[in-house]
Amino acid sequence: MVTLTTEQLRNHFFDLLENELEIEIDRDMIKGDTDLMDELGIDSIDAVDLIIGMTELTGVRLEPHEFKRLRTIDDFVIALSDAVRNA
Amino acid sequence: MRSNSPARIASDIHDRTTLVKFRILTFLEYLPFLMSRLWRGIATVSLFGLFGLISLLLSLIALPLLSLCIRDPAQRRSTGRLAVSGACWLFIRAMSFMGVLRYTINGRETVTASKGLLIVANHPTLIDGLFLLSVFRNSTCIVKQQIFTHRVTRFVVDFIGYLSNNDPVEVITQSIAILREGGNLILFPEGTRSTIGKPLDFSRGAATIAIRSHATVVPIAIQCSPPTLHKSSPWYAVPHTRVRFEVNILGTIDVTDFVESAKTERSASVALNNHLLSSITKTTKGRLRENA
Questions:
Q1: Is the pLDDT of residue B292 over 50?
Q2: A53 to chain B nearest CA, in Å?
Q3: Rounded to whole angstroms, what are the CA distances from B272 to B258, B268, B276?
Q4: Residue B291: its pLDDT value, please?
């Protein structure tokens, strides 16, 4: 398991968006409360890919019941940050 | 314009004897429909009861016996799936024999391969899976988590290696693994039963699994008329007329074309998903064949 800061998690999340999902983002403009589905056009399969990508980095898996409440970038980063801390 | 309904005609008859005669004749005219509906109601309740009994027997007797006789887990799973497939076939044959429904399955000859098939269908009714399982015998399904926690059904789904829909990450990774090993998988990309009156909407999951596993895709369009056993209809609600099912197997799709013509895996899966959605939607909008 890798210990990462919230900022590192956020940056890795942006890397996944750009490299894996090929979504163009402006890192300076994008906000924590950006809605992943409505504003970035992410669907449920993209969300699965993001979870797999973040799991590979942190070694921590989010519980399935947590998936549905992940709406924004901050939701993702905070959930992972909590999961890493509690692991 | 005034209607010619029996109630309207009766309101125009003022002679009592003529009115009684008219009511008796109207009742006799409708009697066959009433008897047919009553019979189909009795048959439906009996057959669903039988289905529950078969599930119980499979769970408590047949599958435990199989696990004692067959040691190899893969062979045990495969034999268990054949037993389930046989039970599904028996159930739909019994429904047809008892007059609850009529059905046709078209296009079986278009599927020549028997391994590594991803079967993708729309999901208008509760019993679609039974038709598909009776045709594609050694197939895995993705089922609701509740079935894995139910005291009767959990043993069956565990034994035959069905997947739970509880964890989307596991669903994707295990589905790909099953198809790469040559197994068959049945998927309903709507995720739940169709909503009557709304256009079909497919999640990209099935297409993604197909692209990543390079499975052969078998699109299937299921039609049911009149609508029954849908999302807002309880299993015991009997339609006015006998139900007609048509299961149309729309050939096979080699995903290589989609992979090669797309820049990314994601765009390949989007294109495949759109193709599946349009071909299945187009067929479901067509009229049922008269011989169905």
A1: no
A2: 11
A3: 7, 6, 6
A4: 44
Q: How many helices (H) and strands (E) does chain A have?
A: 4, 0
Contact state of B169 with A61 under an 8 Å Cβ cutoff: yes
Closest alpha carbon to B13 in B28, B25, B30: B25
Looking at chain B, the whole-number percentage of residues with pLDDT higher than 70 is: 97
> Cβ distance B235 to B173 under 8 Å?
no
Residue-wise DSSP of B13-24: ---HHHHHHHHH
User: What is the C-alpha to C-alpha distance for residues B147 and B3, in angstroms, rounded to an integer?
Assistant: 49
pLDDT in tens, B275-287: 999 999 999 886 6
The model's pLDDT over B184-203, given as tens digits with 9 standing for 90+, comes to: 999 999 988 988 888 999 99
Q: What is the rounded CA–CA span in Å between residue B193 and residue B291?
A: 26
Q: Which of B50, B208, B37 is nearest to A46 (CA)?
A: B208
Chain A CB contacts of B205 under 8 Å are 44-45
Residue B266 is nearest to which of A21, A44, A52, comparing CB atoms? A21
In chain B, which among 233-272 make CB contacts under 8 A with chain A? Answer: 264, 266, 269
